[in-house]
Design goal:
Blueprint: H1 16-20, E1 30-31, H2 42-58, H3 62-80, E2 87-90, H4 93-102, E3 111-115, H5 120-128, E4 135-139, H6 149-155, E5 160-166, H7 178-187, E6 191-195, H8 207-210, E7 214-218, E8 230-234, H9 236-240, H10 279-295, H11 297-317, E9 322-323, E10 335-338, H12 342-351, E11 354-355, E12 357-359, E13 362-365, H13 373-387
Parallel strand pairs: 1-11, 3-4, 3-5, 5-6, 6-7
Antiparallel strand pairs: 2-8, 7-8, 9-10, 10-13, 12-13
The chain binds pyridoxal-5'-phosphate.
Length: 388
């Protein structure tokens, strides 16, 4: 099944060397841990400093700071073909998922379909709803490390309130097709919640074309940002009929009305907003997402298909075992290689100048727009030399 193919290219369609000069870490390490934490750039550092300058010189600037949060929402919206009004801001994906869950009335429909490929925090949020009458129904990960569409069909019935699926599997980068999932969920009257943390910034996403109801992501991975900020897209017509119980004063129609006894709802996704937003994180997040939008996700994807194919063929040539799909059309930027002790391997590779990301039984090599073919060749050489 082909999910995404941007056709690999011989060289990026953007100024690779120019972008590399804006990433100080490249002078000492090869970062291939973008599925965990992307490196700081001159742009994201400047954004943090802009906030600190404003705080230092103005004491406080709530209007300016809230405008920055709005612009960060707009930058996130641009990534997924939405508008800023369709976006709410949180401090983590866990919090965003909890807010979505809190808006569902499980007395009407009790089943929640959740894949085993979700990052555990997402599963935990849905399991926690069992005290609110929800019943979690798992969709298994197959032996090939992917979730089959048939496996959804086996558990999707008209008692399902919501389907919770990741776009990219955090362990091995397996992609799921959002349009197929939305069509399936909607055919049973269920909503679709998508965690796109492992794909956003590297795989084109169009929430309008795919028909998803919710889509969340944090910012520290391929969006080049920091911990402490996450965004949630809510489809406008869905937002209008939901009342999240996980809420706060920024979810009100007018947060500054200070009417304690009135629980009204902001229009659109803003009703999912919580308390005072993470301002410095939003400054950095906006700058990180602007890099991605400026280069353009299709151009990034095309280069990552080239790097990903090099990783897959290079792993096979060195006798390494790849976990999950081995066609780039079915993968995010992440390639997972099975190793005996991934944490030890992460440390040993770091000592040799390559920064990968250990997760369970695998070492994840997750290049981004700034990586080169030499980077991925070196990482594979280092990894295979440590295994022999
Ligand atoms: C796919 C995915 N979802 C969620 C998370 C965690 O989200 P948060 O810590 O923002 O709740 C991760 C994290 O590392 C992830 O890879």
């Amino acid at each position: 099944m082909t999910l995404v193919s941007a056709a690999p290219v011989a060289a990026p369609a953007y100024d690779l060397e120019g972008w590399r000069r804006r990433i100080p870490l490249l002078s000492s390490l090869i970062p291939l841990n973008n599925c965990s934490q992307a490196p700081i750039t001159d742009d994201t550092r400047a954004a943090a400093e802009r906030y600190l300058k404003s705080w230092t010189e103005r004491g406080m600037d709530w209007d300016g700071w809230m405008e920055e949060v709005r612009l960060a929402k707009a930058e996130f919206a641009r990534l997924i073909n939405a508008s800023a009004d369709d976006i709410a801001v949180f401090s983590s994906v866990s919090e965003a998922t909890s807010a979505v869950a809190s808006a569902i009335d499980f007395r009407e429909r009790s089943a929640v379909v959740v894949t085993e490929a979700e990052f555990p925090t997402v599963g935990h949020v849905w399991l926690a709803q069992e005290k609110r009458d929800a019943r979690v129904r798992w969709v298994p990960v197959g032996d090939d490390g992917t979730v089959a569409l048939d496996a959804y069909d086996a558990v999707l019935h008209d008692d399902v309130a919501i389907v919770s699926a990741c776009h990219g599997y955090y362990l091995n980068g397996a992609l799921q097709d959002l349009t197929s999932l939305a069509t399936r969920a909607h055919a049973h009257g269920a909503l679709l919640y998508v965690d796109a943390y492992q794909s956003l910034g590297t795989v084109p996403v169009d929430v309008r074309a795919s028909g998803v109801d919710f889509l969340a992501s944090g910012n520290l991975k391929f969006l080049m940002g920091v911990p402490g900020v996450a965004f949630l897209y809510v489809r406008p017509d869905v937002a209008e009929r939901l009342r999240p119980a996980t809420t706060g004063w920024f979810g009100r129609a007018n947060p500054f009305a200070f009417t304690i006894k009135e629980l009204d709802w902001a229009a659109g996704a803003s009703r999912f907003d919580m308390g005072t937003p993470p301002v410095i994180n939003a400054y950095i997040a906006r700058a990180g997402m602007r890099i991605i939008n400026e280069i353009g996700v299709p151009a990034i994807r095309a280069w990552l298909e080239t790097l990903g194919e090099r990783l897959i063929t290079g792993a096979a040539a060195r006798g390494l075992t790849v976990h999950g799909p081995t066609e780039m059309s079915r993968k995010t930027a992440t390639t997972a290689i099975v190793v005996p002790d991934s944490h030890h391997m992460e440390g040993a590779m770091r000592e040799r100048g390559v920064l990968p990301s250990a997760r369970g039984p695998v070492i994840r090599l997750a290049p981004h727009f700034y990586n080169t073919l030499d980077d991925v060749d070196t990482a594979l050489d280092v990894l295979s030399s440590l295994l022999t």
